[in-house]
C-alpha cells in the first residue's frame, strides 16, 4: 500500500483508503473512491504541513506520513483450510451518519502491524460510499484488504444480511474460536428508509402528504389514522428509540401496528429494544446451528446492549457477551488495542478476550469527560444469577402488595438508561433495596446475594465504568419502565416466560399505595 501512487483522476478502493486516512486527520473529503479536487487539495495541504514535496500526488512518502508502512500486495491473506486461532467478525452497519466512525474503526483494525494467528473479517456498508456494501478480510500493517463487492440492494438492518456475512466469514477464515461484533451506534433512519420498510410490510408506499426527504416539521396526522402518512414517518424518525433500532425487521413490526397511537407508543416504550433482542436471538441461534456450537464471544459495539434480557435471550447461543449499559460514544471500541492484545496472545480464551475488551474500552476514555460503561458476562454461568433474579422478582411482587412506596423509592434512585429511561441498572436497584430500612428482610437478603454474584470474576467476567452518573453501576441493566406502560412485545422475551419479572412490572403498574 505504501508504494501505491495515486493522483488526480485515480479511482478505486486504494483512493477510498487514502480518503479515510485524510478524514481521520480532519480533512473534509468524501470517501467516495474518486481522487478529485478536494482530495488533491487535502493531499497538498498534508504534504505542506509535513514538509514533504507538495505535488498533490499520494506516493510512498505521503502514505508514510499517514502512518502506512511499506507492504507488498502479495501479503494479502488468502482463503485457508488451516484454522486461525481467532476470526474476529465485525459487522459494520454504517449506512447512516456514523459512516465516518466506520472508516476510523477500519483504520484502527488495519493499524496493528501483525495479527499473529488472528484473522479479521468485516461487513461494511457506509453512506459516504454511496451505500455500497462489501465483505472484507482486513489486512494488518497497511497491506491491501481482500474486498468482495455485494450486489445491491443490501439491507444492513436485515438479520439475514448478518447471517450471510457470518457464513461468508467462516468460509473465508476458518478458526478455532469466533467473535462476532455487531457495530451499530444507530446514526438514524430517514423517512424514506421507513417508507421503504413500510412498503415491504404493507405492500404499498405511505400516503405522501408532504414532500419526500427528511422533514423535521411535518403536518400532524390524526392519531386514530390507520395507515401512516409520510408525515408520521417523518415524526417517527425523530424519536430516539427509532434512531437506535438495529434491525429493519423490528421497525417493520412497529409499522404494522394498526393505529398512529399504537405506533407512537411502540416508538417510546422499549418495544424496539425487545424486538431487536428477539431478532438477535434468531441470528445467534442460526449461527449456533451453522457452527455446531455456541459462538465464543458476541460483542456489541453499540448502545444499551449490556442488558439482562439480551443475555438471557441468547444464553444458549453465545459464550461471552460484551456490551454497554449506557449510550456509547461515536468512537466506540479501541480496535487497535484490542487486536494488539489478541496478537500478543492469540490462544487466549473467550473469557480473557472479554476481560480485555472491557479493560481497553475503559482505558481509551480515561482523561475524557465521557460517561461510559462496558461489561463482559459469561452466558454459560447465567443460571445461578437468574435463580436469584427470579427470587428477587417474586420478592418485589410481595413488596408491592405490602408497601409499594418502597419500590417507588428504590426505582426513583436507581440509575436509568435508554431514551425513555426504561432500562435500570440492577446493581443500583439492589443497593437501594438493601439500604432502605422498610425493605422486607427476605427481599433485602436476596438483593445482597445478587450483589455478590455480580462481582467481577464469575458470571460477570469484567466490568468498568466512568462518570458520576454510573459511579455505582454494575454493568447490567433490566427493563423497568418509569411510566409503567409495558411494551406489548416484552411478553415474547425469554425472561418474561421464565421469570416473574413481567408479572412484577404489571403488578407495580396496577398497584395503589397501601402505606406511605
Summary?
By secondary structure, the chain is of the alpha/beta class. It is 42% helix and 15% strand.
Q: What name is given to the CATH topology of the largest domain?
A: Rossmann fold
Integer tally of domains: 4
Strand content: 5-15%
Oligomer: single chain
Per CATH, the class of the largest domain reads: Alpha Beta
End-to-end Cα distance, whole Å, is 71 Å
Bin the helical content. 40-55%
Q: Major sheet, described briefly? A: 9 strands, mixed
Return residue spans where pLDDT drops below 50 for at least 5 consecutive residues: 70-78, 211-224
Structure summary, number of beta strands: 12
Approximate shape? globular
CATH architecture classification of the largest domain: 3-Layer(aba) Sandwich
Contiguous helical run count: 19
**Strand order within the widest beta sheet:** 4-3-2-1-5-6-7-8-11
Mean pLDDT: 85
Class based on secondary structure composition and strand pairing: alpha/beta
Rounded to an integer, what's the Rg over CA atoms?
24 Å
Protein name: Clostripain-related cysteine peptidase
Pfam families: Peptidase_C11 (PF03415), PG_binding_1 (PF01471)
Domain Peptidoglycan binding-like: 11-66
